[in-house]
Write a structure and sequence with these properties.
The chain has 401 residues and is mainly α. Helix content is 83%, strand content 0%. The protein has helices spanning 3-32, 38-44, 49-52, 54-77, 79-96, 103-131, 134-163, 167-170, 177-187, 201-213, 215-246, 250-270, 272-279, 281-298, 305-332, 339-368, 371-389, 391-396. Helix 4 packs antiparallel against helix 5 (79-96), helix 7 runs antiparallel to helix 13 and helix 14 packs antiparallel against helix 17.
């Protein structure tokens, strides 16, 4: 194939890639866009403070439950056929929150929104992983992590601004799922990939079960869950700590969180694939976890903002190295016929880590305060060690190079 043909093929993929990145960014918006207005929601709907946090985290549980189901369905009927309805449901269930007049209906709408997000995540990452192979796939997954990191900065700011007029208006942002669905309908092929029907349902089930039983797959699932749990240590407890220790207001804490997202966005886009190529996936993942651990340990000792911000960027860089390489390692160790299913389960594991992070670490914060950062660092170091131990399996078991 000539260089010009390769260039034309790449150009044809750019609109599809942009649509998929936009769809993936919507999954980031699921929880972050309404987080700034939750205090107003709690007050106006008279929600018990003990349960108000569930409104922010409920979607993580249903993403965990529905991502695997949607991933398996995507492998059977086609990924676009799962993505487009999921985007439509995302818009419907998300905006329905604006009409809620109590805790229960709002919680139900949040749960259904999470289920739709699970479909979006499973289908979009499945399409991305099947479009590219080798180093290019690692780089594209890095772009995806970068886009999600940038979205995690933008959406809370926009949601807070819109919510300053009325908290119900913020839920209208979920209607972005409709134009995304229209673009996906226009640009994405809705048929199954050529050759995707070469194995029957029984064979596909056997390959899925075999992949799920593989030690490297189990390790990667655990690593994805722990990565999200560690990241949530920073999202939840770092702002509380800095408010107590240096009197950080919402602007300062927002700048610290944004710095982490910027670090993740930059390294994911330009560095994660290069590190994986030079060091190998396992060592690159271990390096990322080590950076996260090192910066978590420093949090209790930082008092000056000019030291806090660079440290936050380095933490984000560690996260930005880990996530795309974990997903790429999962892709390499999985047959194409069940890749969407496995990646979707990985997404579910990541969201399960988010859901349980405050549940498991909340008591640590309550009783030990800054000890929560040392616990998070310890978990990161253990996971780094596990990555090294599984390195041989990650590097040798490759179905898609």
């Amino acid at each position: 194939m000539s260089t010009s043909l390769l260039t034309n093929e790449t150009r044809k993929q750019i609109p599809i890639l942009l649509v998929l990145l936009a769809c993936g960014s919507l999954t980031t918006m699921t929880g972050s866009v309404v987080a700034p207005v939750m205090p107003e929601v709690k007050d106006q709907l008279a929600i018990d403070p003990r349960w108000s946090g569930m409104l922010v985290s409920m979607h993580c549980l249903t993403i965990f439950l529905f991502s695997p189901i949607c991933g398996i369905l995507a492998d059977r009927i086609g990924k676009a056929k799962v993505l487009i309805p999921s985007l439509i449901c995302y818009a419907i269930f998300g905006t329905a929150g604006a009409l809620a007049n109590g805790f229960t209906p709002l919680l139900i709408s949040r749960a259904l929104l999470g289920a739709a997000s699970g479909g979006i995540a499973a289908a979009s990452i499945g399409i991305l992983s099947s479009m590219y192979e080798g180093e290019k796939r690692t780089r594209i997954l890095g772009y995806t992590t970068s886009a999600l990191a940038i979205a995690s900065i933008i959406f809370p700011i926009v949601g807070g601004l819109i919510g300053s007029y009325n908290w119900r208006f913020t839920f209208g942002m979920y209607s972005l799922g409709l134009p995304a669905a229209l673009l996906a309908y226009i640009l994405l092929p809705r048929g199954k990939r050529k050759g995707s029907s070469s194995i029957n349902l029984t064979q596909q089930k056997d390959r899925l079960i075999a992949s799920l039983k593989a030690p490297s797959t189990i390790t990667l699932f655990i690593a994805l869950a722990l990565t999200s749990a560690i990241f949530y240590v920073v999202i939840i407890y770092a702002p509380l700590h800095f408010k107590q220790s240096i009197g950080a207001d919402t602007v300062v804490n927002g700048a610290i969180l944004a710095s982490r997202a910027i670090g993740a966005a930059v390294i994911s886009a330009v560095g994660a694939s290069k590190l994986a190529k030079r060091l190998g996936s396992a060592k690159a993942i271990a390096l990322g976890f080590t950076l996260m651990a090192a910066t978590l340990i420093t949090i209790p000792f930082l008092k000056e903002i000019y030291l806090i911000l660079p440290t936050a960027i380095i933490f984000g860089m560690g996260f930005g190295i880990v996530m795309p390489n974990l997903y790429d390692a999962l892709s390499k160790s999985t047959p194409k016929e069940v890749r969407s299913s496995i990646l979707a389960i990985g997404t579910g594991a990541s969201n399960l880590g988010q859901f349980f992070s405050p549940i498991l670490l909340g008591p640590v914060w309550k009783n030990a305060g800054i000890g929560v950062f040392f616990v998070g660092a310890g978990v990161a170091l253990v996971t780094s060690f596990l990555s090294i131990q599984q390195g041989k399996a990650l590097e040798t078991t490759k179905y898609g190079k």
